[in-house]
């Protein structure tokens, strides 16, 4: 069984692939450009990939291909219809990074709500030493337990964020198309109007594209803490940037961007000097434990396929 890993560098260089190496002859590439795809898929029976795009223009060259394993939950980079029509199995991995994403969400929200970056800068700049005062409590922050936390998108990740927020004593409001009894589910307008912290966990689709736009930003409380660990285009990035610069948003945390990596002309470039903004390079999913879990799941998917099973099969 010839197995090719097309972009291992996107997963990190610290993972144990021993389970996969036991399944066949494995070739590993750090990265694969679109121009290199055809050459690298021609002899493969199994492809493991993260961001490489497989479509009707390059897949016909993969004459021996039997299985595509996507090291992610999303699968929009693979032409599922083509694979279905040509008998190519496709698997993804679901739920492997929940704890990792929740951890970053909570870390961002707590840091921003507590103004940690400002306090850290005050000490590191030498201003604290020069002040002659034993403490500092400006900018003002409040206890998390006194705040209302709004969760947009109440899937596995959003649900766990909501439970953590409740455990900290927050009043939690959730926006979900199909309300559940576990949480107080409200319409989006109510959530935006009443929440002090808003974290976004919804998938990107026609209904959520620019879900947070200028109109909805005006509905939020002044000084709101806003965190996006979902998809970049769920935010109107220009409108969100302006809301930070105008003081409407008190704290912004962003791990995802409409174009990745963040481009030099991104509106967020205007915010890189701000102490109330945390921007990270789409790493919320990437705790070591989550990445290794993903590889282990891929190995199990391949084993299942070889045994005639349909574990994690999309096609």
Notes on the structure:
The chain has 315 residues and is α/β, with parallel strands linked by helices. The chain has two domains: 2-95 and 288-306, NAD(P)-binding Rossmann-like Domain (Rossmann fold), CATH 3.40.50.720; 98-279, Rossmann fold (3-Layer(aba) Sandwich). 31% of the residues lie in helices and 16% in strands. The protein contains eleven helices and twelve strands. It has helices at residues 18-21, 37-41, 80-85, 98-114, 116-124, 127-131, 156-167, 188-194, 214-219, 237-245, 288-306; strands spanning 2-5, 25-28, 46-49, 67-70, 89-91, 148-152, 171-175, 184-185, 197-200, 224-228, 249-254, 277-279. Strands 8-7-6-9-10-11-12 form a seven-stranded parallel beta sheet, sandwiched between helices. Strands 2-1-3-4-5 form a five-stranded parallel beta sheet. Helix 7 links the parallel strand 6 and strand 7.
